[in-house]
Amino acid sequence: MIEQGKINARQLAILTLLFSLGSSILIVPSGLTAVAKQDGWLSAIVGVGVGVLLIGLYVTLSKRYPGQTLVQFAEQILGTWLGKLVGLLFFSFYFLLASLVLRNVGDFITTIVMPETPIQIVHLLFIMAILMSASLGLEVIARTAEIFLPWIMTMLLLLIVFLLPQIQFDRIQPVFEAGAKAIINGSLSVISIPYLELTVFLMIIPSVNKTKIGMPFLKGAVLGGLVIIVITLLCVFVLGWDFASRHTFPSYTLAKKIQVGEFLQRIEVLVAIIWFLTIFFKLSLCFYAALLGFAQVLRLQSYRPMIVPFGILIGVLSIIVYPNIVYFRVFAGEIWPFYSATFGLFLPLLLLVVSWFRPLAAGAAGGGSGSGGSQPGGGQSGGNQPSESPSGGSQQSDSQAGGNQSNQGQAGGNQPSGSPSGGSQQSDSQAGGNPSGQGQAGGNQPSGSPSGGSQQSDNQSGGNQSGQGQSGGNQPSGSPSGGSQQSDNQAGRNPLGGGQSGGNRPDESQANVNQQSESPSGNNPSVGSQPGGGNTGGASASKSPSGEGQSGGNPSGGNKSG
């Protein structure tokens, strides 16, 4: 995971609250009153109600794919290439949103607070702050939000209390004069700023170390909406809807009206401080989401190498994103609601609908078993079949028409058997056939036995013995846990423990594996080996890493190279 930091549910609620206030506390009242007039506060209520439904959509998506960001589960739902395309679209949305928020800061300071200061200097200062926050990570941003939240709420409370003497209730009348259509149209300002932008949190929710994220997410969004409703009401009560609609930042002008006695007045710096803090967290979260999304689309190990380049890009884009503040008002009222709805409503809804028709996890196909075929990975043919079976599986190898079976190109030579710890088995053949080629008749055959013991078996008449426990009884070999190998020697038959004789056959049996080898025909499989590393006879090498059993037979002594 690129982001290792974790936040708790309380920090998620705080970040949602501060993000919801962000630029909304200064910009939204103007858009509400411009459309719905004195009923702007009703539009705010409608917008908050729709915002709650959007929160439900985001929470549903997050619960269907826990631990995954929006970019990650988009790839899972839509496939790799289409999912990456959607991820890049969301990255562009987050990046553009961060640029717009940064431009809002520059416009506010250069228009209201410090009109002689170049906007580039203001942008540079905020870019330095968000570069530091992004490099420190989400956890540090959340802890910082916890520190500043009491101060923000205190200043908001002071603002509301000090404005109470300035309220004129007749400014809100007549109620519902604008009509339902104007109220609904006005609510688009609140829906688009900030609720459609809350899709940013789909990149943050996986970092929450609590599964129940719905309630804290909803609490933060609703509390932010309540603050917007109260500020809009105060703008209507104190300033009047016409004055509020003509100003880009009416809540800042609202704070200028504060006058308590003759000593407490012009404390609009309270609103400026509130806005600087809340918009810092909104800007940091947008920039962080853009970085994280881009890194996940490209499967990068970390997003931190891109912090400085993206910081430069966001500074440039914030200058050219719109020419002036008048253009921004038109953009925010007529274009941004529909643009943000594409990423905040339609695409998440599309992902949710498509996810209903696609399984959350594709079932893995079980491994099959085959017999008698040649598999290219082992360099074997004519009945050589490696099989893997991790636990509890059994493997049987039948050799019906004798021959020398070898997987290493040796005959009767040294045979390593892949068992985890180094036991040894030695088998001496005194009167049996001596397979020639590269080995010796009845040579040493170390076989891994986990307990480190050694087993010796002598076959003195009429047959061979290879250290897997073949002629003359059962001999457990190469079996790390509870495995057994049985070999039946009946009427001159010499079954080898791996279904082979005199050959080289690594045999691995890792967990509770029973290997049985039966040789029903009366052939003695210790015949000579062929030069060049090949032996005659079928080889059946068997590895047992998964609970499957495979059987392979070699009905005729074909020539087979290891």
UniProtKB/TrEMBL annotation:
Residues 367-562 are annotated as: Disordered. Residues 509-529 have a biased composition (Polar residues). Its main location: membrane. It is a multi-pass membrane protein. It is found in: Membrane. This is Endospore germination permease. Belongs to the amino acid-polyamine-organocation (APC) superfamily. Spore germination protein (SGP) (TC 2.A.3.9) family. InterPro entries: Spore_GerAB (IPR004761). Residues 383-433, 443-463, 473-490 have a biased composition (Low complexity). It comes from the Bacteria. The chain crosses the membrane at residues 12-35, 41-61, 81-101, 121-141, 148-167, 182-205, 217-241, 269-295, 307-330, 336-357. Pfam families: Spore_permease (PF03845). Residues 367-382, 549-562 have a biased composition (Gly residues). Keywords: Germination, Membrane, Transmembrane, Transmembrane helix, Transport. The keyword Transferase does not apply.
